[in-house]
Amino acid sequence: MSDPVIIKICGIKTKALLDASIAAGADMVGFVHFARSPRHVDIDTVGELISQARGRVESCVLLVNPDNTLVAQVAALGPDWIQLHGPETPHRVATIRDEAGIAIIKACPIGGPEDVVAVKGFADVADRILLDAKPPRQAERPGGLGHSFDWSLLKGLDPDLPFMLSGGLTPETVGEAVRSVRPMGVDVSSGVETAPGVKDAALISAFVRAVRDAG
Ligand SMILES: O=C(O)c1ccccc1NCC(=O)[C@H](O)[C@H](O)COP(=O)(O)O
């Protein structure tokens, strides 16, 4: 039997929704620290949420092209993962992983076959890859936009690559995504919200149920 699909709920801002994600059966939760995001939480709140998650669910702090000071600040809070969701190069990802001593998820935007080729460059420097839709050029943030991408592009992907799928997943679409792409995990933000940055406990439950039914 294959391993259960890992479920990550990204963009949690409150203890109530952290508790709701755990109650629903999520495996990981993500906290976004990026000022232009409607899911942004300040560093003190990130620290409190990590403490509340510890031992109950894996925590992940999402950063965009962070400098060394921010990496050190976040690493000191003791999350299980740091997710790099910006234009970080493989060399920079390796440096951050060494400096932080924390497992790294590298988000890779997918818009065409060349982006799938570029994913290989992160295979040895990240602990996990997150495949996400490539944002439009004018987008004000590099992720969490609720956009999906053409999953058939992933046919050429190394089957041994530890990757999670994200980008516009919803309780309605995630079952088909799990069956057709067969990722090790799935990640959602917009698809379990009623408005940008406003998570909904019932949608989180529906998402988790849909993944478990498919897996
Ligand atoms: O959520 C944000 O606002 C955000 C800001 C900057 C970089 C990344 C961001 N989110 C990434 C995610 O929440 C997920 O990892 C993923 O992209 C899924 O997002 P969605 O398409 O909204 O489900």
TrEMBL record:
<dbReference type="InterPro" id="IPR044643">
    <property type="entry name" value="TrpF_fam"/>
</dbReference>
<dbReference type="GO" id="GO:0004640">
    <property type="term" value="F:phosphoribosylanthranilate isomerase activity"/>
</dbReference>
<comment type="pathway">
    <text>Amino-acid biosynthesis; L-tryptophan biosynthesis; L-tryptophan from chorismate: step 3/5.</text>
</comment>
<dbReference type="InterPro" id="IPR011060">
    <property type="entry name" value="RibuloseP-bd_barrel"/>
</dbReference>
<dbReference type="GO" id="GO:0000162">
    <property type="term" value="P:L-tryptophan biosynthetic process"/>
</dbReference>
<dbReference type="Pfam" id="PF00697">
    <property type="entry name" value="PRAI"/>
</dbReference>
<dbReference type="InterPro" id="IPR013785">
    <property type="entry name" value="Aldolase_TIM"/>
</dbReference>
<keyword id="KW-0822">Tryptophan biosynthesis</keyword>
<comment type="similarity">
    <text>Belongs to the TrpF family.</text>
</comment>
<protein>
    <recommendedName>
        <fullName>N-(5'-phosphoribosyl)anthranilate isomerase</fullName>
        <ecNumber>5.3.1.24</ecNumber>
    </recommendedName>
</protein>
<keyword id="KW-0028">Amino-acid biosynthesis</keyword>
<feature type="domain" description="N-(5'phosphoribosyl) anthranilate isomerase (PRAI)">
    <location>
        <begin position="7"/>
        <end position="209"/>
    </location>
</feature>
<keyword id="KW-0413">Isomerase</keyword>
<keyword id="KW-0057">Aromatic amino acid biosynthesis</keyword>
<dbReference type="InterPro" id="IPR001240">
    <property type="entry name" value="PRAI_dom"/>
</dbReference>
